[in-house]
Design brief:
This protein is α/β, with parallel strands linked by helices and 438 residues long. It is 45% helix and 15% strand. Strands 1-2-11-10-8-7-6-5-12-4 form a ten-stranded mixed sheet, sandwiched between helices. Strands 3-9 form a two-stranded parallel sheet. The longest helix is centred in the first third of the chain and has 44 residues. The N terminus is likely disordered.
């Protein structure tokens, strides 16, 4: 059973791991509550130890009565209870120290994020972390272990995955290291897109009236490709209120020498978004939402793959839309979302594009219902490595199917979201094709 829905990692036979993301895997308050409850058990053992000791002392001091009491066995019981009391006390102490270590990691991550927008608040949060470390030197050491272990796990599977890909791994891993060093892999508060995007033209190419998706895999299957890069579904709910779901594709043109031409979802846009600059693909997505009827303040949820994940991050953090649900697969970045925004991320540990996110925030991000589902997308060496198969949307859909079937409480909590969409009285889906002007 999970300690806390949305926090405790889980895994199945297929290698799928589901957790809140980052180095924080448990809720610190519930961990402290567990330590307190263990301490109450320890007090019961103390009472039992005192009672057995009194009995042992009484029997040992009494004259021989021939009662048949095995004094040696009683002495061994006293010794074993003593050992159990020590073990329980150590477990209580260790649990409470670990809770403090998790909190230090979380506080340090919060301070780092706040430093960009509120230096005074960042200093106050950092001071809280420093006080915890000052109280017990073990706390700081454990916090460093947690972050070090998380950093090691971020690139699991990359080393052996691309043995046949020649220079490809060093190029992507160099990019990942740059993301780690510069913080580009995490979109933090205040990091709005700079500059002006290339002008684009957005045209509707297909309309339909589907039912709401019934699960995570079904949602990712709705991401368009080829003839269109964005699809927007307008949901008219009972009573007339409207809401939207945008499905944003990944890179459509990956050849560097063809960047900057008519296709907005190209490497030029990839670089611009990763470096925090406005891109034609982002502008096209905003324009598509406007063409579908979405207005400032409207609820717009996002389902996105790859480059679309970077677009989703900025839609959630700086657009005029209210983005409360964001589902991404293989995104090169991770947004820093509020407690009222849910982020569901699919990541493959051997996906070089996902590795550019550098693991995101050490404390995770988003609401308590947010989670990251990860696995090794392709454990086998082969020519498919040259095509980045582990990054393909089809491979991530397989992971989404595993999440749907996992029985994990965080994944099952998404059922409420699908059910809510399913109550719409009308669904209008429009797919859009975008091109750069000129």
């Amino acid at each position: 059973m999970s300690m806390v829905a949305g926090r405790e990692p889980s895994a199945d036979g297929g290698g799928l791991s589901i957790d809140h993301g980052g180095a924080i895997a448990v809720d610190t308050e519930q961990l402290r509550d567990l330590g307190a409850r263990m301490r109450s058990v320890a007090s019961e053992y103390e009472h039992a130890r005192a009672a057995v000791r009194r009995a042992h002392a009484l029997i040992s001091s009494a004259p021989e009565t021939g009662s048949g009491v095995d004094v040696g066995a009683l002495q061994r019981s006293v010794e074993r209870i003593d050992e159990l009391c020590v073990e329980i006390e150590n477990a209580c102490t260790g649990t409470l120290v670990m809770a403090d270590a998790f909190e230090v990691v979380e506080l340090r991550a919060q301070a780092e994020a706040l430093a960009l927008t509120d230096a005074a608040a960042a200093s106050a949060v950092q001071a809280r972390a420093d006080r915890l470390v000052a109280d017990d030197e073990r706390i700081g050491t454990m916090a460093e272990w947690l972050v070090a272990g998380w950093k090691e796990r971020r690139f699991e599977g990359l080393g052996e995955q691309y043995d046949l890909a020649g220079a490809l791994p060093p190029l992507f891993l160099a990019g990942a290291m740059v993301g780690v060093a510069s913080g580009l892999g995490t979109v933090r508060p205040g990091m709005t897109l700079a500059g002006k995007a290339d002008p684009v033209q957005v045209m509707p190419v297909k309309t339909s009236a589907p039912n709401a998706p019934a699960g995570l895999a079904a949602a990712f299957r709705r991401i368009p490709g080829a003839a269109s890069q964005v699809a927007v579904e307008k949901y008219t709910m009972v009573g007339g209120a409207t809401r939207y779901v945008a499905y944003v594709a990944g890179t459509q043109e990956s050849l560097p020498w063809r960047s900057g031409k008519s296709e907005p979802w190209d490497m030029k846009s990839n670089i611009e978004l990763y470096q925090g600059r406005a891109s034609a693909s982002y502008q096209a997505t905003v324009d598509a939402l406007g063409a579908a009827g979405a207005r400032p303040g409207d609820q717009v949820d996002v389902v996105a793959h790859s480059q679309g994940g970077m677009i989703a991050a900025h839609l959630a953090m700086e657009s005029d839309f209210e983005v409360s649900m964001q589902l991404t697969a293989g995104s090169p970045t991770e947004p820093t979302l509020g407690e009222d925004q849910t982020l569901v991320q699919l990541r493959h540990t051997d996906d070089v594009v996902s590795a550019l996110a550098a693991g995101g925030s050490a404390a995770g991000t988003g609401s308590p219902d947010s989670f990251t589902a990860s696995r090794e997308g392709d454990p086998h060496d082969g020519m498919q490595d040259l095509q980045l198969q582990t990054h393909h949307l089809e491979t991530y859909i397989e992971t989404a199917e595993m999440v749907d079937a996992s029985g994990d409480p965080r994944a099952e909590a998404l059922d409420d979201y699908w059910d809510e969409l399913g109550q719409a009285v009308e669904v209008e889906r429009t797919e859009y094709h975008a091109e750069r002007k000129g």
